[in-house]
Structure formats: C-alpha cells, structure tokens
Give the backbone structure.
Amino acid sequence: MTTRREFLTVSGGCVAHVLLMSACARAATRMAWTAPANPTVTTAPFARLDAIAADTWALVSTPLGGDRTTFSNGGIIAGRDGVIAVEGFYKPAGATWLAEQARALTGRWPTHVVLTHYHSDHAAGVDGYKSTSASTRTPTLRATATTKEWALSGGPVAPTKDDGLVRAFADVVIVNADKPGVIDLGNRKISLVSLMGHTKSDIALVDDDANITFAGDLLWNGMFPNFVDATPTRLIASMSTLATRTKHAFVPGHGAMANHAAVQRYLDLLNDLGASAKRGHDAGKSAQDVAAAYTVPVALGEWMASKTGLERAMTAWYREWTPAK
C-alpha cells in the first residue's frame, strides 16, 4: 500500500494522478478500466500477465484494488537470444515478479530492461531485476540520457534516489534520443523509438513483424492522461506517429490493451483538449476557467477525468503558448 507520505511525495506524479482520476469514476468504470482482452497467463493482487503475441506478454497493472507493487503496465518480449523486460515499476518487488514470470515462461531471467521514461511508477523499482544467482547475470538497463538524469534527480515526480536506484543506473546503456535503437533478440528485432510528449524523453518499443507496440505513458486507455510533465503538441505528434501502425496491439502505460480504434479515440481526446485550450487562450481566459468549463465529449467515451487533471492538461497547453520569463 502507498503511505500518506509517499502519496504526498509523488502528488504531481502518475500514482496520485491515477488514484485521483479513479475516485471520480463510477464503480463500473473502474472495474472495466483494465478488463482483459487476451488470454491471461497468471495473476497477482497488483497485476496480471496476458499473452498478446508469440513470446510476448503484457503486464497489466490493477492498482485500484489497493496493491501498487507495479502500478504501471509493462511486459516481456522474448527471443532466441534474449528476453526484454519492459519497465521498472513502482516497487522492486514488481520488477522481481516480472523477472520471475519471464523465467517461468521462457526459462531465462531477463537479459535487457527498457525504461520508457523516468517517472517513479515506471522506474523506482528497477533494482528489483538484480539477479541473486551466480549463474544468472543482472540484465542490461537501457534508457535515454534524459531519463537517467531525471530519474536520479530526486525531484517530486522522480523515484526516491537511493543506493538501489543508483546501482541500477550505474551501467545503463544510453539509447540515442536522435534515432531509433534496436535490441536484436536473434529471431526478432525490437526497435526502441525515441519520442517525447509525456515527458521530455520517452521510448516506445516496437515490433513491426509481430504488430506490437509498448507505448509507455505516451498512451493512456480509459484513464485521463497525466500532463504534469507533458508537452501536448509533441505528445500528439508522437502518438500520431505510433498510430500509423494500424494493425498493432498497443500496451499503454495505464489501462487495458488498446487497438487502433482505442488509440484514435485517445488522439481525438488530445485534439479536443487542445482545441478547447486554444479557444480559451485566444479569448483571454485562464487555464483554470477553461478546465472548469470543459467536458469530455460523450462520443469519446469515459475517461475518468477530474478537476485537477483537467486543470493540469489545460495548463500544459498554456505553457506552450506563454513565453518563459
């Protein structure tokens, strides 16, 4: 469970954001938020593991039940020569659990770990992948230089800086933010696509042969996105790029698996928010007033939005249009 102190520490981050958004939703909506759409391999109080393609599994977190061990989504991508674990999660126990599931399913501990961005619910538990077996190597961590810098910053949205976090990032392999990276698993190659929008540096993992994309928090499904670090125009551009993969199954940072229709619905939400923000800004209204008047269009479905979430979204757009002093 998250303590009051932890909650206050990450009050701008996705942990508090998800809990606040869910508090504004109907019980049925909360129940449906992470409903399975694929065969489930195993479950835990904090998550389940779904088979989404050959040798590919999505970890779908279920934090609204009260156990926030993982909190964000992630997953496993296995190949002949290696196994990728996606995300470091909120607690080290979450990373250890996913590594143990990888070994149960593939016979191997993860050889690589990829962090999509630095937020605490995706990165704080990364030291949990450390192997305690002399015969098993601790996996190689991959992240962008910005993710490393911000993860170790000790800021309010970053993980708590401790010995485990520093140890995990000590030998990180830096993903080039200017061009895609690749992890060659022997019989499949996973592209690490450097983007931005949810933060100043995000990574999506893409397998175009298997039609799978792990989008991190660039994509939210059924839960209003957190704009605390967002640059909205870049977020729309990044998701528009990923959305060209119309046949892909998408693993969002939070929520159930998404298909192309769900991704398009998310983009429609982002564009509608942006249009409302622009009209309000041009009319001289405050971001708070625009947020107070905004309602998610019925055609876009339920998004579990709260007053705080809407204000944060509108403020993010206003930041782009207001020169820094």
Summary: The chain has a mean pLDDT of 93. The CA atoms of residues 165 and 278 lie 40 Å apart. The radius of gyration is 19 Å.
